[in-house]
Write a structure and sequence with these properties.
Blueprint: E1 3-8, E2 14-24, E3 30-37, H1 45-64, H2 75-85, H3 93-110, H4 120-131, E4 136-137, E5 141-143, H5 147-153, H6 158-165, H7 169-176, H8 183-193, H9 197-200, E6 202-204, E7 207-208, H10 212-231, H11 260-270, H12 275-287, H13 291-295, E8 302-303, E9 308-311, E10 314-318, E11 322-326, E12 335-338, H14 341-361, E13 368-373, E14 378-382, H15 397-410, H16 418-431, H17 436-443, H18 448-454, H19 456-475
Parallel strand pairs: 11-13
Antiparallel strand pairs: 1-2, 2-3, 4-7, 5-6, 8-9, 9-12, 10-11, 13-14
Length: about 475
């Protein structure tokens, strides 16, 4: 039977050391097997107790079945179990899905190597390969004039195809019109329709390597897995740790943003667009909130009297789960943001539009909607979401991105995305002398250091302006005395 020992570190972090014996070796000594389990910070005591019991049972079964890990275990076997043990709510659903995707590349390259044989040169070779052509398709696209016909023959609606593929209704609409879509979206549609992608679409591919940021994400995941293997005493050290190898170099790129004149032009153009999209993009520009935070807004979050909005939820799409509702990414992301009277006047207009939409839908309006939480459980809530589909249900996050792309293309604007408008908001504040802690709090960053790192160029530009101001101000005193 397994024993459990609780350990509390100096900084208050709790881990559990689970130990079990697995018979005797040829010298008559008991073979000890052990793992370390660490609960996530947001787990309640009851959740920890329940999950700890599950971890103990799983570990005992693995020892009993002879599937317990040791130093000869292949990296792929250990990493897959590590991922399974960190399923939501241990990891955020979006993070879990990203790790699943990254592990496909990782295990293809180093998955067959034993934990005890894995060395830093294996990792370096893998990272070099990720930089080569043929790994990622950039600039690739797909198009097809067959989608609408196939949907009719299979009696599948566009809405149903969106649900089956996990894509936004806007992307499905573009595919049905034979417009260009990404090859990733084409693969999802082909999989949903059970037709080989090369039979359904005309594929136009262009390849290049992964970005330095994505390669660094691979490295950090490998390091997290090997750190756990070291805690489980399967390897003596984590060879991906900074003490033993350098992490892939990150080529820092400035965040995309619009300058003052460009954003003014965008605001003017938005006055000619439907109020739903105008309101959405105005809010992104004037508040600096994230796309998911925007789509998680409910009318109870809008304080018309004090002219503030409260960021309490974020709406995301996760493969296999659909649209989920979760708390913002960190504690500082739950915040209150002051907005101008002009923006609240627009929100009042949009509220009237929203109420009229509810009236026009009549009995088709869903007064209560079922939402999926981060742990996969369902919850029924009153339908108060600001941004919704035509059937009154929560909007797919990609719908906003897809509409923005079309808006940019139609008006021949410089490329920008919903996230670019967050960067635009921050850059304008910094350029006009708003202090960094205030910008950081407004953006909901976990620390001022994050803001400084992301907006270094804007800070340097503001500093140059400050230098000119002080020089011009004091220059008149030269020669006086």
């Amino acid at each position: 039977m397994a024993t459990v020992k609780k350990h509390i570190s100096k900084n208050g972090k709790v881990t559990y050391y689970i130990r079990c014996y697995d018979g005797y070796d040829r010298n008559g000594k008991q073979i000890e097997r052990s793992i370390t389990w660490k609960p996530s910070d947001n787990m309640t005591p009851k959740q920890i107790e329940k999950e700890l019991k599950r971890q103990v049972i799983l570990f005992e079964e693995s020892v009993k079945n002879g599937s317990c890990f040791d130093s000869s275990t292949r990296f792929a076997d250990y990493s897959e179990t590590w991922l399974e043990n960190n399923k939501p709510p241990q990891l955020a659903p979006k993070t879990y899905e990203r790790y699943k995707s990254l592990l496909k590349n990782i295990n293809q390259a180093i998955g067959d190597i034993k934990l005890s044989k894995l060395q830093s040169h294996h990792l370096q070779k893998f990272y070099n390969n990720l930089r080569e052509n043929g790994i990622k398709r950039v600039g690739a696209y797909a198009s097809s004039d067959k989608i609408s016909e196939i949907l009719i023959s299979k009696s599948i609606s566009r809405k149903r195809l969106a649900e089956l593929s996990g894509l936004s209704s806007t992307t499905i609409s573009s595919a049905c019109k034979a417009e260009r879509i990404s090859t990733e979206s084409a693969e999802k549609i082909a999989e949903a329709l059970k037709i080989p992608v090369n039979q359904l679409f005309n594929l136009h591919t262009e390849t290049t390597g992964l970005s330095s940021k994505t390669i660094l994400h691979h490295h950090r995941l490998i390091s997290s897995i090997l750190a756990q293997a070291a805690r489980d005493r399967l390897v003596p050290i984590n060879i991906a740790d900074k003490n033993y190898m350098k992490a892939p170099k990150l080529e820092r790129k400035e965040a995309d943003f619009l300058d003052d004149e460009q954003v003014k032009h965008v605001l003017e153009l938005l006055n000619n667009e439907p109020i739903k999209w105008k309101t959405a993009l105005y809010l992104l520009i004037f508040s600096g909130i994230r796309r998911g935070e925007l789509l998680g807004l409910e009318w109870s979050d809008i304080d018309f009297d004090n002219q503030v909005i409260h960021i309490r939820n974020t709406s995301q799409y996760v493969q296999g789960m659909g649209i989920i509702t979760k708390c913002p990414k960190n504690d500082t992301s739950q915040r209150t943001i002051k907005l101008s009277s002009d923006i609240f006047e627009l929100l009042r207009e949009y509220h009237v539009y929203w109420l009229n939409m509810r009236r026009d839908l009549a009995d088709k309006w869903q007064y209560f909607i079922e939402i999926t939480l981060v742990d996969g459980t369902k919850k029924t809530i009153r339908n108060e979401r600001l941004f919704i589909k035509d059937d009154s249900t929560p909007m797919h996050p990609d719908s906003l991105t897809d509409w923005t792309k079309k808006f940019v293309k139609k008006n021949k604007l410089p490329h920008f995305s919903p996230h670019s408008l967050r960067h635009t908001h921050a850059s304008i504040l910094i350029a006009n002398g708003v202090n960094i802690p205030t910008v950081s709090r407004r953006l909901g960053h976990s620390s001022v250091a994050t803001t400084t790192k992301v907006y270094l160029h804007a800070i340097q530009s503001a500093d140059e302006i400050a230098s000119e101001v002080i020089n011009n101000k004091l220059n008149s005193f030269k020669g006086k005395g």
